[in-house]
Structure formats: C-alpha cells, structure tokens
Design goal:
By secondary structure, this protein is mainly α. It has eleven helices and six strands. A two-stranded antiparallel sheet has the order 1-2. A two-stranded antiparallel ribbon has the order 3-4. The longest helix has 21 residues. Functions as a peptidoglycan terminase that cleaves nascent peptidoglycan strands endolytically to terminate their elongation. Belongs to the transglycosylase MltG family. InterPro entries: MLTG-like.
C-alpha cells in the first residue's frame, strides 16, 4: 500500500485502517506518540523518535502495531524497475517516463544523447526529474570510462563526438556482433573525408526527437539538406541522433580493423559489408532482389545495377 507524501500521522493511521493493515487509526497515532515519548525520556529528544516516511510498503498479514510503525520508519519502500531501450531519443525517453504512473512531475526534455539506456530502480512517487538526473549521471560515468579507453587513432575529438558517432551506430544496427564493424565503416569514411551517408541521420534531420518518419525515405529526403543529413554535410552531424547504449559507445571508441566503406541490409536482419563501390553495388542488387521477392538474387559474379555510395 502507498503512504503519500505530505501525509500526517493521523492521515497515515486512517489509510492503514482503511486498507485493513491495522484495526484502529487511533491506536496507530497513540503508538507513534508513545515511541516519541520513550525517545524523549531516554534523553535523545522528541526529534529522535520514529520518523514516518512516505512511500509504498508491503505489510505482513496480522502484523503487530509496532511492526507496522517500524516498517514505515525503516524507509524500505517497494522498489520497481523501468527499462529504457537503446536508441530512443530523449523525447521518447521522457514519453516513457510520462507513461509510467508510478512517477510524478513533468520534466523538460534533456539534451539528445545525454541519457544512458539501462534498467533503473524507481519508487512510487519518485519525480521524473530525479530519474532523468540518474540517467544523465550514469551516462557521464560510462562515456568518461569508454572515452579513456578509446583507440588512439580513432578520429574523434571529444566525448561528445563519441556519443554522436555511437548514436549513428546504434540506429544502424541492433546486432551486437555488427556494431564494431558498422562503426569501422564510418570511421574509415571519416578518415577518407567521405560523407557518412547514414539513413538514420536523414530521418533525425526531418523529425528530430519524435524518432520515427512513418514512411520509407524518399530520394527527395536524401537530397534535401538538413543540419543532420550526412548525405549533404561533411563529417559528423552537430550532435547525437538518439541515446546510444554501452555497446554502441564501446564500438565507436574501438571500431573493428577493416577497410570496409559500405554496408547494406542482407535480408537476414544483418548487413553485407564491402570495401569497394563495385562490391557494394552487387550487395545492393541482392538486397533489392530480396525486397522485390525475386526467386534468384544476382550471384556475386553477375552485373548489378549501380547504387549510391551510401552507408546503408
């Protein structure tokens, strides 16, 4: 049962009686007063008596009055969990918190990429701002630790750039075994002054923190410049496009050692990687055949239709 914040001793007694935890609210009030009197007589002062704490508690059947008071003064409230998946925007994270009825308050949307996707412990009545601060502090610690162990030749100038690259990796693949290789594609392209050409950056440039475009990307979307469209800008976008998880951050800090410059979906939930545009075009042709339901996709030796030099 829940003891709301701001409830006085009599309020608590009434709630406990109504919920069947105790038989009479007045006994609860008298019990609390008695404990305070005992504390006062021991010379510890009335302020050192039982401090009743708001929160959600579990009581045993037929628990004694003293036991009920001890439970509420212990502060051992019921702990719940909330899981924030990798790849959500800060706006989407706030929406998840707003949808959770255990939490209170209406927070501002934090800076993109400043929250760590994780499972967090929460209590009934806890403020959403408090949970967001916990997420932000966890993110700062994780980013600092990963940044300190980054590869010496990774072309990133700051932890913020690490988060930005990791956010792109996070949105490009959900497969653990691919993250370092996807990160390598973007690192290799940065090293060659090639545009990243990442589709998720197009989407973020259009919808921002809302997250989903709700339709396929069009040729017009690709060619329309935005601050985040890496088909139109050089280097990294001005900031993250989501909140990346630990694995994506680690992959961006220590990418695989490959020469890959391209990748495209392979029809299995993963991606086909290529070092050259010619090989990439062949991979794209196979993917298009899969999309169109072709019985036999082009074999590796067969000619393929040209494709843009896109990361995905």
């Amino acid at each position: 049962m829940n003891i709301p914040r701001g409830a006085g001793v009599r309020d608590m007694g009434d709630i406990l009686e109504r919920e069947g935890v105790i038989g009479n609210a007045l006994f609860f009030v008298a019990g609390v007063a008695g404990q305070k009197l005992v504390a006062s007589q021991k010379g510890t002062g009335e302020g050192d008596g039982p401090k009743l704490q708001a929160g959600e508690y579990v009581f045993k059947p037929a628990q004694s009055l003293a036991g009920v008071i001890d439970t509420i003064t212990s502060g051992k409230v019921v702990v719940h969990q909330i899981t924030i998946p990798e790849g959500l925007t800060s706006q989407q994270v706030v929406k998840r918190l707003m949808d959770n009825e255990l939490l209170t308050g209406t927070p501002a949307v934090p800076v993109e990429g400043s929250l760590l996707p994780e499972t967090y412990r929460i209590t009934r009545g806890q403020s959403r701002d408090e949970v967001l601060k916990q997420m932000a502090e966890a993110q700062r610690k994780v980013v600092a630790a990963i940044w300190a162990k980054r590869a010496s030749d990774v072309p990133l100038r700051s932890p913020q750039e690490l988060v930005t690259l990791a956010s792109i990796v996070e949105k490009e693949t959900g497969k653990d075994e691919e993250r370092q290789r996807v990160a390598a594609v973007f690192v290799n392209r940065l090293g060659k002054k090639m545009r990243l050409q990442s589709d998720p950056t197009i989407i973020y440039g259009i919808v921002g923190g809302r997250g989903s475009l709700g339709r396929p990307i069009s040729r017009t979307d690709i060619s329309t410049p935005t601050a985040y469209n890496t088909y139109a800008i050089d280097g990294l976008p001005p900031g993250p496009i989501c909140n990346p998880g630990r694995e994506a951050l680690a992959a961006a800090a220590n990418p695989a050692r490959t020469r890959d410059l391209f990748f495209v979906a392979d029809g299995t939930g993963g991606h086909a990687f290529a070092e050259t545009l010619n090989d990439h075009n062949k991979n794209v042709a196979r993917w298009r055949a899969i999309e169109q339901g072709a019985a036999t996709p082009p074999a590796p030796g067969q000619p393929a239709a040209p494709a843009p030099a896109a990361g995905n």
